[in-house]
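Ticket reopened. Same input as before:
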Amino acid sequence: MRQTRSVEIGTGLFVLLGMGAMFFLTTQTTGGDDFRADSVYVVEARFENVGSLRTRAPVTMSGVTIGRVTNVAFDPQTLEAVVEFVIDSRYDSIPDDTDASILTSGILGSQYVGLQAGGSETYLEDGSQIMFTQSAIVLENLIGKFLVNAGSDDSE
Amino acid sequence: MNVLFRDLYNTLIEFLRTFGAFQLFALRIIRHSPSMLLSRFDLVVAQVFNSGALSLVIIMVSGLFVGAVLGLQAYSNLSLFNAEDWTGVAAAFGLVKELGPVITALLFAGRAGTALTSEIGLMKATDQLSAMEMMAVNPVRRVLVPRFLGGFIAMPLLAAIFSMVGMFGAHLVGVELFGVDVGSFWQQIQLTVEMSDINEGILKSIVFGAVASLIAVWEGYNAMPTAEGVGRATTRSVVITAIAVLVFDFMITAAMI
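Engineering reply: fixed in the latest deploy. New output:
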């Protein structure tokens, strides 16, 4: 009987440890979604270049995540990228002349949409479109411009 | 020439027969599993103890060192790009998605699988299985199914423990030894690793657990009932499990990408 008892205790400890490890992995190593909202509204923005923005990228305002990108598409008529994102309905007083830019978190980080508040009295609502946008900074273009400038400086 | 073709044909047919018999065997084991889990839970618990709890030491020590090595390699290469903060990410991805399930399965085959195979093989060699049949006890149900279930339950837990201890090892090397900032080490992991990565690891460990235990049990049950036969079966069980795990790993990874 003592044999079975110690086996049972050992098994119990082992299974608990295993469950603990799974819990650790799922909670401590994943950030999960730091964006959860009961209700959201959809806003659209058009960019010349979205860089490597992907769906599920965060939408932030003053550094706080208030929404998430739900769709990145290309509009063949206007030849622009159409980014669709949802914003938590709690934040319903964002001025409609807010501008959206695509930023990079850190030098190797992923890209996200940053909103910069405007001063309008009317607010963004479901289906509205952001007028002022700033494209992603593409490193290659930047280097290209820099090289062109450096070359022209030398020739003068 | 005819002899060659005949030999080839016989080998092929024999392979197909074994392969098919294995599938039927697997079905038989799986069919008996739910009722065994309900009616003789004590037997399953004893096997979880044998396969799982007794493998803890080797799993944890290996996990610690694998994580530490990953941290070491990641750090020394990432520091070339001043991206030391990503040490944890490299270790986490390596552990959670690949090395955790795979190395655990290989160690499991060596530590628990061999024990299962030789135990069952010896039971067969000493006619214990036939004796059970005489007493109208189904040896597949009474002996094999609890051992399969024990391994099946233990494997995912062992893989999770391996990954967790490995993260700790990477932390020791990255943060304590090389002085990566502890905040950015873990924050970078949390930002990058997603739930789907963890799920991939868990899925792999479940599949590997089923594969490793099934092969171990099958080899034991089909061992030649001699001392030499049991030895051979044990070797085969490890070899086949190792190959099967690596092949399945490739297939699952390819399917999940």
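Chain A has two domains: 1-30, 40-139. DSSP finds two helices and eight strands in chain A. Please confirm and we'll close it.
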